[in-house]
Structure formats: structure tokens, C-alpha cells
Specification:
- This protein has about 300 residues and is an alpha/beta fold.
- It has two domains: about 5-115 and about 190-305, P-loop containing nucleotide triphosphate hydrolases (Rossmann fold); about 120-180, Histone, subunit A (Orthogonal Bundle), CATH 1.10.20.140.
- The chain contains 13 helices and six strands.
- The protein has a six-stranded parallel sheet, with helices on both faces.
- It is globular.
């Protein structure tokens, strides 16, 4: 078990995790490891709410702008890359601060998990891909919800690859995906996990306002550039904010409708994140309405009790 406990700042989207993490990192002398399945990609800045270059100059960040948009990236790869970052930070006598809202990536680092160990069936996978092509991602997602509701709640319908894999596991074994097991007895790292939250109505208002700000800051142009550079079919652009605007460029959505869909899908995602993090029994929850400075100070004081 690690000598220096990890500090984890997690929670649903739009709760101000990055800002609070930077304040904490500056006071503790920590380095931040991003735990975001979209921020890992280069050129996807506005839609992922990536920390600015100025913020990254204040505190060293890891696993941001890390791979190209057309590269395959997964929880398993993230676990290995995060382990390497943690070891490097600790060897420099600094504190690893993991910050982000991708629950599956976070669990892959904190707990012993059996990603991908289940049997595979190319035939079943082909059948499911055919269903996806014929009936669409929502139909496929509904199939998963019927057989494995918990795993479905942790995934976005656009994450077709993982949805197919979860259904495949069930069809082969008759068991639900092992991504939702009880992990509390399989800890890989000693850690202090802080979950940021706010009132659901306020959270949804923040999500709506942040989406409008992303549009003002050039999200449409960012996605259009990625589309023109040939990344339209990449898995990375299934991320919320990108897939909806791709539908706008293809003529399926009007721009106002695409923007409303971004807001809706982000609210749905935040709800799934809350469901995921509520299963982390050892985590401590902090209401962000107390203000960034106050929350940062509280988390620092609570974390120091482990040292």
C-alpha cells in the first residue's frame, strides 16, 4: 500500500472540480492527474472543459492532451498510465491528486478489477454490431438496461463499444458485467476521496449555462475542425458535446436542437455520475455552495489527518 495517500477530487460534471483541485494542489504541493475519458484527447478542449494553459502552468497536470482523437483509449490503459504518473509524482516527494468525473477510470485505479477477463464471442459481437447499425445506439442501450441496469446507468448510450461488451458478457455467461462489483475489499491505493456536489436544480442550471458558454467560446468551430480533419468516426467524438454537433453537421439536427441535446445529455450524464459515486461508501461529500476557498480548505484539513 502506498505511503503517501492519493487525494481524489471527483463528482458530477460542472461542480467545479478543476478549480478546487488547483487551489488544493498549490497549497499541498501536489500534481494533478486528470481522470476524464475525454480530456485525455488532444484538440478536444472546449467541449471537455479542459483546464486552460494558464491553469496547467500553475500546477503540473498529467494525462491531459495525451493521445490523438483517433487513438483507442480505455480504462485498462488509463489504469496503467495513471499508475506510472502516481509513481513518478511520489518519487518526486509530491502528492498525487486525481481529479475528474469518469467513474470507471477512477475505479480502475483505486480498486482491483477484472476488465476484459470474461470470455469473448466474435459472433455475438457481430450480431450486436448489426443490431446497432440497423436500429441505432438507443435500441442497443435499451437492450443493456433490460439485462444489466446498473452497468447501463454507468455508461452513456453513445459509448457503443462498452455497451456491446456488457451485453456480450451477459449473453456468454448469463452474468452481469463485472464492472459493477463491490470493490471495497479490493483497494489498490490508500486514498482520501472527496466528492463534490450541489443541489440537483442548481447543478442542472450550471450545466445549461456552461453549455451556452462553450458555444460562445467556439465549440461548434472546434467540432467542425475535428470533423474536417477526418476524426468524425473516431470513438473520442462520441463524447457529449461532440456527437450532437456531428449530427448537426450531417444535417440530422438543427443547431438549436443540437445545443438542447447537449444540455439534456449532460444532465443525464451528471445523474449517472451521482449514481456511480454514491456507491463509493468511503468517500466524503462536500457541498460546493460553500465556495471554492472554503471547500479547498476543508478537504486539505481532512486529507492531512491521513498523513
Amino acid at each position: 500500500m502506498n505511503r503517501i495517500p492519493l487525494l481524489v477530487i471527483a463528482g458530477p460534471t460542472a461542480t467545479g472540480k478543476s478549480g478546487i483541485a488547483i487551489k488544493i494542489a498549490k497549497k499541498l504541493g501536489a500534481e494533478i492527474i486528470s481522470c476524464d475519458s475525454a480530456q485525455v484527447y488532444k484538440y478536444m478542449d472546449i467541449g471537455t472543459a479542459k483546464p486552460t494553459k494558464s491553469e496547467r502552468q500553475q500546477v503540473k497536470h498529467h494525462l491531459i492532451d495525451y493521445v490523438m482523437p483517433d487513438e483507442d483509449y480505455s480504462a485498462v490503459i488509463y489504469k496503467n498510465d495513471c499508475d506510472n504518473a502516481i509513481n513518478k509524482i511520489i518519487s518526486d516527494n509530491k502528492i498525487p491528486l486525481i481529479c475528474g468525473g469518469t467513474g470507471m477510470y477512477l475505479n480502475a485505479v483505486l480498486y482491483q478489477m477484472n476488465f476484459g477477463n470474461a470470455d469473448k464471442s466474435l459472433q455475438i459481437r457481430k450480431e450486436l454490431n448489426d443490431i446497432y447499425k440497423k436500429y441505432g445506439q438507443q435500441h442497443l442501450y435499451s437492450m443493456l438496461k433490460e439485462i444489466d441496469f446498473d452497468t447501463a446507468e454507468s455508461l452513456h448510450p453513445n459509448d457503443v463499444k462498452r455497451v456491446i461488451r456488457a451485453i456480450e458478457i451477459y449473453k456468454i455467461s448469463g452474468k452481469k458485467s463485472d464492472l459493477k462489483q463491490d470493490y471495497k475489499n479490493k483497494l489498490r491505493y490508500k486514498n482520501y476521496t472527496a466528492i463534490l456536489y450541489t443541489d440537483r436544480k442548481k447543478l442542472y442550471e450550471k450545466i445549461n449555462k456552461r453549455t451556452d458558454l462553450m458555444i460562445e467560446n467556439g465549440l461548434v468551430e472546434e467540432v467542425n475542425k475535428l470533423y474536417k480533419e477526418g476524426y468524425g468516426e473516431s470513438k473520442s467524438l462520441q463524447a457529449i458535446g461532440y456527437s450532437e454537433l456531428l449530427n448537426y453537421f450531417s444535417g440530422e439536427y438543427s443547431l438549436p436542437y443540437a445545443i438542447e441535446k447537449i444540455k439534456q445529455h449532460t444532465r443525464n450524464y451528471a445523474k449517472r455520475q451521482l449514481t456511480w459515486f454514491k456507491k463509493m461508501a468511503a468517500a466524503v461529500w462536500y457541498n460546493v455552495e460553500k465556495g471554492e476557498d472554503n471547500i479547498a480548505e476543508e478537504i486539505i484539513n481532512d486529507y492531512k489527518k491521513l498523513l
